[in-house]
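Notes from hallway chat w/ T.B., transcribed later so I don't forget. T.B. wanted the structure written out for a chain they're using in a teaching module, and asked if we could keep both sequence and structure tokens in one place. Agreed to drop them here.
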Amino acid sequence: MDRATLQTRFPDVYAIGDVTSVGTPRAGTFAEGAGKIVAAQIIARARGGEVARYQGDGRCYIEFGETQIAEIYVNFLGGPKPASQYFGTTPEGVANKQHFGSSRKARWFGM
């Protein structure tokens, strides 16, 4: 499998989520990012264009209690080695996590 495009050895077959072997954790935020890249790859192939490469990046939330939520951004494939940035517990972290969840509920389930 091509780590940058997520294309398998079979033409027009891509892998996302838990079936990949690209070196990212088995977490929804990474599968969601991979899905966006695969969709862009399919569109680019149909239109004859180029798209961004899969970076293996995502944002995760760490809960330390209802009002204490930290954020960490990780990028596994965008550089010579994995990189991360920890943001600590902030009021913005609580709001960002709430937005993360509510935006997906709205997009996926119309809620």
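Follow-up for T.B.: The first helix runs from residue 28 to 47. Might be a good example for the class.
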